[in-house]
Structures are given as structure tokens and as C-alpha cells.
From TrEMBL:
Annotated organism of origin: Paenibacillus piri
Highest taxon listed in the record's lineage: Bacteria
InterPro entries: Aminoglycoside_PTrfase, Kinase-like_dom_sf
Pfam family name, one: APH
Protein name: Aminoglycoside phosphotransferase domain-containing protein
Domain Aminoglycoside phosphotransferase: residue ranges: 25-210
Amino acid sequence: MQTVIEELIRKKIIPESFEYWSELKGGTNSKVALISNADSSLQYVIKQNTPEQIASEAAFFELYHGIPLLPKVAYVDPEFRYFLYHFLPGSTSYVRGSKAALMNELIDHMVRHYVQPESRQNYCWIEDPIRISEELDYAKSVIGLHINEKDHRLVQEIHTRRIGRMNSDRLYVLHGDFGVHNFLFEYGNLTGVIDPIPGLGRPLYDLLYAFCSSPGELHFSILLPAVQRLGVEDIHESDLVDDMIIALYKRICTCLLHHPNDLPEYLLAWNEWVYRSTIVHPPNSK
């Protein structure tokens, strides 16, 4: 990281006074550092990752430069070894508050502002049925006996049912990893969103991802007003239940891998949504 800082000073991207830096928590492949001048009156973040991820992440921030929750890019290395952005205050340590209030903030200040890409060349389709099928197979291998075989079959039935309405005609540039682990909070307030893995999809995908990313208050009565507030899609209740079950199934997989203590709460929510599925898709309607 010191080499990168010296390079930025040499290129006059940052002044020589930026000699103070500390390592921040990064992802699997990323290295992240906070740099500042002597009195910390000006702070930047340097992020290193694979060239593909640096290019994608920097492009996402530049595309949505008008969204205050997102970092402002200051410099992108021409070889995409790293990029530099203005520091956002806050911590990813999430203290649970009102999920409805958090969803409203995310919708009003982020998701509602998503746009369609000028070109799809550098994006994957997040909800490509083939991709989703592979993710569900993997999730099943992780979840195993934590839910019953009937529920595993339900997920496959829902996936088959959804294929007919999943199309790539109207897609938006999504954050792609839109969970509380990538939200910044300060004094209980949402202050930023970081670390996108951009892709194309429906804004509802990111909304459901955020909704499921913490285990509390995963109720239909909270989700429905959020979806209505989003206002991008006209979706039937039965389709929303299907989409939520898929999102929750994948989240239970993530929970088992990274946050197993949350499993009991997720399983309570799972049973609630499976029961709602029997209401919107009664057996005699098949």
C-alpha cells in the first residue's frame, strides 16, 4: 500500500502531507486503506483488487455519482490496480433498528435512482435462470437437513415457475451485494453504501437482498409497503412471495456459512414465508 501512496503523491493526485494511513477491513481479494493528512481534515480510501473488480466498482460509483450515499471517486489507476475515493464516515457494524425505516431510506436515496445501462457489455445478468439454478443447487448442498425435503422441492418449483417471467428486456445496473455488511452507519443513521459487485437485474433484486441481509422483521407486512414505495414494478403478491422465498433461501445458505447464530431467526421467517406460499399458491391451483 505504501508504494501506491507514493505513486499517488508522485502523480500529484494527493499532496505530500498524506503520509498517514491505516489498513481497513477488505473483502476476500481486496486490500483497503484509509489515508489522511496530519490533522485528518481530508481523508481518502485506497482500494486494491483484481482489475476486473476495480474497473466495475469504480464505474458503478461514477455512474451513480449523484447519490450521496455512495463514495465519490477521486482517481482510478489506468491499469485498474486500485482506485481512490473520498472517505465516508461510519461503520459496517449494524445495530438493528426499524427494518421498515431502513428500507425506506435505501429506496428513497438509492434504489429508486437506478438506471438502465447504455451498454450491457461489461455486466452479467444477476437473475439469469441458469445462474440462479446453480446458486440454488449450491444453497441446497449447504442448507441440507436444516429444512425439510418438501421445502427444498418448493424452491425448485418456484424457480421453474419464475423462469417464464424472468427476461432480460428491462434491466438496471444494480449494486449486487446490497446487504447490511456493506452499509455504513453512524449513531444509528445510514451514512453510506460501499463494495458493490455490479450486475444487471430488477431493482427488486437489490431490495430483497437488503431486506434479507439481517434476520429480524422479515414479515410480509413490512416488505409489501417497501415494494410499493419502490414503484418500479407492478408485481402480483404471489410473484413477490416466490421472489422472497428464493432470496431467503439463498440468504439462509449465507447465514450458515458466515453467521450461523442467526439461523433460528431465519428459520422462523422461512416457515412464515412457506406458509404464505401455500395461501397464494393453494395446492388445488397447480
